Amino acid sequence: MKLRRSERMVVISNYLLNNPYKLTSLSTFASQYEAAKSSISEDIAIIKKAFQEAGIGEIETITGANGGVLFRPTIARSEARALVEDLRERLSESDRILPGGYIYLSDLLSTPKILQNVGRIMADAFKGQAIDAVMTVATKGVPLANAVANILNVPFVIVRRDLKITEGSTVSVNYASGSSGRIEKMFLSKRSLKPNSRVLIVDDFLKGGGTISGMISLLDEFDCQLVGVAVFAENIQQRQDRKDYKSLLKVSDIDIKDHKITVKIGNIFD
């Protein structure tokens, strides 16, 4: 398919945006668009500059026989803060208070645009890390983990709180629920993770930290390494078992009687 330079740059840009963290050789583009590798290299240089200036992402050109072009999505810090500030305001709405000190998040975590933006912010926070998979527990965190995994272009695995015959053989661990203090159990299919995988844990709401501790215990059972933990919101009124996590938002006070929620920006930008 022979294209003019302007057309070629559009389709190459679209390819990179839809294939993040995928190494593609210059020869692939040269063959597909019937252009010299030197011309493709010039195209990539122009796209790289535009992506960087617009805060879209970083393009790395790797030389050598196994080299090529690799696109890493990013988000400008000013844009990310503006998005999180908007979420902070929406999360502060008084009608979100639920029994037990929880907050209604379903509307936010079911909106595609919000999920895409949060996925970009969380993925950007760990862009310097090699990540093989994203893990979450079977709650409202599933679409969030899926959004992060899409940006990182890696699989995401779901930990379940009950046995599913469709999961096949599973590994289970007991953990202490951070909110209730009860001993509970979680399960993960043996086929979900390969040994030595580097895993990012993503969750929607961090209250006591017990669920995340349980997922980390599962990683030990699979001989996998924890890269980090990212949560949409945390309740800092509760004692957290772990401190090495990144949160977009933190709830510092839930006044059920007066229907008030105090929400601040989390440590994602620290």
Automatic annotation (TrEMBL):
<dbReference type="InterPro" id="IPR036388">
    <property type="entry name" value="WH-like_DNA-bd_sf"/>
</dbReference>
<keyword id="KW-0238">DNA-binding</keyword>
<dbReference type="GO" id="GO:0045982">
    <property type="term" value="P:negative regulation of purine nucleobase metabolic process"/>
</dbReference>
<feature type="domain" description="Phosphoribosyltransferase">
    <location>
        <begin position="107"/>
        <end position="252"/>
    </location>
</feature>
<keyword id="KW-0805">Transcription regulation</keyword>
<dbReference type="Pfam" id="PF00156">
    <property type="entry name" value="Pribosyltran"/>
</dbReference>
<dbReference type="InterPro" id="IPR000836">
    <property type="entry name" value="PRTase_dom"/>
</dbReference>
<dbReference type="InterPro" id="IPR015265">
    <property type="entry name" value="PuR_N"/>
</dbReference>
<dbReference type="Pfam" id="PF09182">
    <property type="entry name" value="PuR_N"/>
</dbReference>
<dbReference type="InterPro" id="IPR029057">
    <property type="entry name" value="PRTase-like"/>
</dbReference>
<dbReference type="InterPro" id="IPR010078">
    <property type="entry name" value="PurR_Bsub"/>
</dbReference>
<dbReference type="InterPro" id="IPR050118">
    <property type="entry name" value="Pur/Pyrimidine_PRTase"/>
</dbReference>
<keyword id="KW-0804">Transcription</keyword>
<dbReference type="InterPro" id="IPR036390">
    <property type="entry name" value="WH_DNA-bd_sf"/>
</dbReference>
<comment type="similarity">
    <text>Belongs to the purine/pyrimidine phosphoribosyltransferase family. PurR subfamily.</text>
</comment>
<feature type="domain" description="Bacterial purine repressor N-terminal">
    <location>
        <begin position="4"/>
        <end position="73"/>
    </location>
</feature>
<protein>
    <submittedName>
        <fullName>Pur operon repressor</fullName>
    </submittedName>
</protein>
<dbReference type="GO" id="GO:0003677">
    <property type="term" value="F:DNA binding"/>
</dbReference>
<comment type="subunit">
    <text>Homodimer.</text>
</comment>
<dbReference type="GO" id="GO:0045892">
    <property type="term" value="P:negative regulation of DNA-templated transcription"/>
</dbReference>
